[in-house]
Amino acid sequence: MDGHATANGHTSPSTHFDVLIIGSGLSGINAAYRVQESLPDSNFAILEARHELGGTWSQFRYPGVRSDSDLHTLGFQFNPWKASNPIASGDSIMEYLNDTADKFDIKRKIRCGHKVVGADWRSSDQRWRLDVQIGPGEGQEAQTVVYWTKWLIMGTGYYSYDAPMQADIPGLQNFKGQIVHPQYWPENLDYKDKKMVVIGSGATAITLLPALVDSGVGSVTQLQRSPSYIMSLPQEGPAWWEKYAPQWFVLRYKRFMFTLIPTLLYYFCVYFPVRASNFLRKQVKRQLPADFPLDPHFKPGYSPWQQRLCLCPDGDYFKCLASGRAHVVTDTIKNVVADGIELTSGNKLDADIIVTATGLNLRFLGGVALSVDGKKVDVASQHLWRFSMLTSLPNLGNIIGYWNASWTLGSDTASRLFVRLIKHQNENGYTSVVPEISEADKQNVVLASPLNSTYIKSKLDSMPKCGTRGPWRPRDFYFVDKWRAEKCDLNDGLKWKKVST
Q: Molecular function (GO) terms listed (predicted)?
């Protein structure tokens, strides 16, 4: 850990930095690599609220937890995912993150148990002042320490780690069995030979069903109000030609193809929704057990990619439905009672355990209270510059991945842009940079997310906005965004300042 000598000769951790990165998940580790690669003389650290690196992959421990994007693009460009399986388990992703942090000497920059609760930009100092809660550690009480940094990069993800989304489920308090949210799965939950109901239709529910069947659940029923589009992704081994090609070429080829093909599929869904819906439903029909009805359980009430497309490796979700222990019910909840769930149709689902896989609690900027010279900044009233900085907030980069592709593709374009901004600032003697939007551009507002999932719609009012032109537009797709991160005009929509301190 970086530090400085104190009067008694001991080393005390430094609290003054050129760059501070908040969060040590995929985004934070990626940003750290870009900073140390492009800004080798910068003093930086990563502040992590949890006890270890990993973010999502450290917290989520429900059965079968895995990526909902392929690892060839969810993984890092600078340290490619070498395994042949594109969808990876949570444990293997954690191993990959730890290996990456060790390989590139990033782990020594991470300060775990450091939760940033407030950040105030001080114009007089041209720096961010951070209130950081540290501990409690061994023989240590929790304390608040002040950190200072010229640049602040937020790699905090998009949801709350402290509280899941609370779905409105009538009568849930009446249930006498156990209620579990996947975000806080009990370590020793005993569900063997028991009846479970999983409420939800997203990636978590699609993951849970086959994992629960494989690990001995008595029966599990997925209860969904409306279905999702689901697509099987083969976990195939190396192609025949790969043994004849150099590894660097194979890895680059896979990353390129796993970026290009999902992008083409996305635009196919957007511009030809009826054809895309028919195509996806036909794929599902081929994989379902012969006597399993396609409708209504696999007939979503929205067009493909209006909500995130769910992936399942080798069709494991469809296969588990043939086991006789996994079921799907499409209905709405009338009331939860002591021993199960009464449905609007008049049917009842008996349950020993209810799992509320109803989504995440969307949260921007990690819940950190942001202010400028002591005045609170209302994030929802701000606009996003190149989907990476916010108006009113100098020297602050917020990493947002893609809604409709791998998160890391978007976080990497943002990190490349941040180091370019910092380098330009250092080379030209600027002390700060802040996005400024014209009154004309403020008039045409676009939502930051194209998706209409419940957990996103419920938080749209708390999200910053985008515009319809120039640097205020939402992201297009990776190849264009990567080019803009490396080549865009750094004066377009930005105000640079030189202030003596």
A: flavin adenine dinucleotide binding; N,N-dimethylaniline monooxygenase activity; NADP binding
Query: How many other C-beta atoms can be found within 10 angstroms of the C-beta atom of residue 234?
Result: 11
Instruction: Give every CB contact of residue 376 below 8 A, 6+ residues apart in sequence.
Output: 369, 370
Confidence band of 228 (pLDDT split at 50, 70, 90): very high
- Regarding pTM above 0.90, the answer is yes
Average per-residue pLDDT in the chain? 92
Q: How would residue 263 be classed by pLDDT, with cut points 50, 70 and 90?
A: very high
474 preceded by cis ω (within 30°)? Answer: no
- Which tops the pLDDT comparison, 139 or 189? 189
HSE-CB for 126 with a 13 A CA cutoff: 14
Domain segments of the chain as ranges: 3-161+362-497, 172-356
- Tally Cβ neighbours within 10 Å of residue 244: 7
Distance CA 45, CA 109 (A): 5
What is the CA angle 87-90-94, rounded to 5?
Answer: 115
* DSSP string covering 386-449: TTTEETT-TTEEE----SSS-HHHHHHHHHHHHHHHHHHHHHHT--EEEE---HHHHTS-B-S-
The CATH H-level (homologous superfamily) assignment of domain 3-161+362-497 is FAD/NAD(P)-binding domain (3.50.50.60)
What's the burial of 427, exposed, middle or buried (CB within 10 Å: 0-12/13-18/19+)?
A: exposed
Within a 10 A sphere around the Cβ of 451, how many other Cβ atoms?
15
Question: What pLDDT score was predicted for residue 189?
Answer: 95
Which residue bears the tokens 């001991």?
A: 10
Asked if 263 and 405 touch (Cβ cutoff 8 Å), the reply is yes
What's the farthest any 2 CA atoms get from each other in the chain?
77
pLDDT exceeds cutoff 60 at 9 = no
Structure token pair of residue 405: 């592709």
Condensed to tens digits (0 to 9), the pLDDT of residues 390-448 reads 999 999 999 999 988 999 999 999 999 999 999 999 999 999 999 999 999 999 998 88
* Fold observed for domain 172-356: FAD/NAD(P)-binding domain (3.50.50)
* Whole-angstrom distance, CA of residue 75 vs CA of residue 434: 30
Collapsing DSSP states into helix, strand and coil, what is residue 106?
A: coil
The answer, yes or no, to whether residue 460 has pLDDT greater than 80, is no
Alpha-carbon span 266 to 473, nearest angstrom: 18
Alpha-carbon gap, residue 249 to 270, rounded angstroms: 32
Other Cβ atoms within 10 Å of 271 Cβ, number:
9
Instruction: With a cut of 60, say whether residue 138 has pLDDT above it.
Output: no
In sign, the C-alpha dihedral spanning 386, 392, 398, 401 is negative
For 146, the token pair is 């002040």
Mutual orientation of helices 407-428 and 478-487 as an angle, nearest 10°? 10
